[in-house]
Design a protein that fits this description.
single chain, 295 residues, alpha/beta, Rossmann fold, 9 helices, binds adenosine-5'-diphosphate, binds magnesium ion
């Protein structure tokens, strides 16, 4: 194992297909809150601004996973993105995390237009601004908790001693000061996710992107992890969390629903699902067995 293993915390970067851009002006998906928002004067600072950002996977056949959307997330917000499987959540997260490049529109991250940036610049911006937390933790199995956190700083050019010092501080912050030298296999699921949170915090990001962070945890442990995220938010961190757990979504200040690649302000997952559940029942012949929808 080498320190290059640190790259495994990030999913594979898909090469964007610059040739597959849909025509400009196809911004049918307007997002009420954003469209109605007055121009920010002295007010909150936009950390994320998506202007007509869309993503079409080249195929064949091409898949328009994200319709051109408007979205603004201000510094210090705590936002849940909810949507059923296949609705475009990971596509959106990969774009926001600069892991993928949109095929339409402009993504401003903390005032930087990321759309035309060179890959090396995007990588640097990602390392400076964004921490990631995934459902599956993605820890290096043969490295201690401290090493897992410290290695995320290798590419930041932080000297070795300093890396270890920061790692210890962040592990203490998430309540793991007693497990600094533990290997992931000896840690519980909740403790592993705490290591992953400490790692995400090591470079002092402005934005924490979380993809189903409690998906592999029992409800009590999930609750404790959510309490940690609440504290980080209270300290000013901007958090965006992808989830289809209503309790998780309810803890955020703001919810945005994604469905078929379209965004809508608010949590509409429940009402949409009720509507879907009702539709087939209305049509069936009496005596027909109706199976509940899986998702
Ligand atoms: N690399 C890809 N190539 C083609 N289609 C993709 C690719 N990744 C995702 N999709 C499609 O885009 C849509 C949204 O996927 P995804 O963002 O993964 O949804 P979610 O995370 O909400 O389950 C789905 O129809 C999926 O099949
Ligand atoms: Mg997904």
């Amino acid at each position: 194992m080498t320190e290059d293993d640190a790259t495994m915390i990030l999913p594979t970067v898909n090469a964007a297909d610059a040739g597959g851009r849909p025509a400009d002006g196809d911004d049918t998906a307007v997002f009420a809150r954003v469209a109605d928002a007055p121009p920010a004067a002295e007010g909150p600072h936009a950390l994320i601004e998506l202007d007509g950002v869309g993503m079409t996977y080249p195929g064949p056949p091409p898949v328009e996973a994200l319709k051109p959307v408007q979205l603004r997330i201000d510094d210090g917000e705590y936002v849940a993105i909810v949507g059923p499987s296949g609705s475009g959540k990971s596509t959106l997260l990969n774009l926001l995390g600069l892991l993928d490049t949109p095929t339409a529109g402009t993504y401003w991250l903390d005032g930087h237009d990321t759309s035309k940036m060179k890959e090396s610049h995007r990588t640097q911006l990602r390392a400076d601004k964004i921490g990631f937390i995934f459902q599956a933790f993605h820890l290096m199995a043969h490295r201690t908790a401290t090493e897992n956190v410290a290695m995320s700083l290798v590419y930041q050019g932080v000297p070795r001693r300093k890396r270890r010092q920061i790692a210890r501080e962040k592990l203490e912050l998430v309540g793991l000061s007693h497990r600094l030298d533990a290997l992931p296999t000896t840690l519980s699921g909740g403790e592993r996710q705490r290591v992953a949170i400490a790692r995400a915090l090591a470079a002092e990001p402005s934005l924490l992107l979380c993809d189903e962070p409690t998906g592999n945890l029992d409800s009590k442990t999930a609750d404790a992890i959510m309490a940690t995220l609440d504290e980080l938010h209270d300290e000013g961190l901007t958090i965006l969390i992808i989830t289809h757990d209503h309790e998780v979504a309810d803890r955020a200040q703001r919810a945005v629903t994604i469905r078929d690649g379209r965004l809508r302000e608010g949590n509409h997952l429940y009402e949409d699902r009720e509507h879907e559940d009702r539709t087939p029942t209305d049509r069936v012949e009496p005596g027909t067995l109706v199976m509940p929808k899986a998702d």
